[in-house]
Amino acid sequence: MIRLALPVLLLLIGTGWFAWSSYRRAAQAEQALAEVNAEHRALMHEVRSLERAVAAAEQGLRTLSSHPSVPRDVAVTADLTLADVRRLVDRKELDE
Q: How far apart are CA 19 and CA 24, in angstroms?
């Protein structure tokens, strides 16, 4: 009887250990995924804030370069800066 009970007992212990370790790995993976998702949301919030800032800067540069009291060299610099900002934004475009 003991010879039969020992393999069954070892099988139950092994199965329990495997189930517990699988559960712990799944819980750790779920925690890591939650952290990555939170970081992703924070980064996307920052990207949107930066996009709004770039849009405001573009509008300001557009207004500056078209204002009649602004000297020509300042207007040209503002236009070049606007083109540079657009080029940078186009290269760094993010998919959502």
A: 9
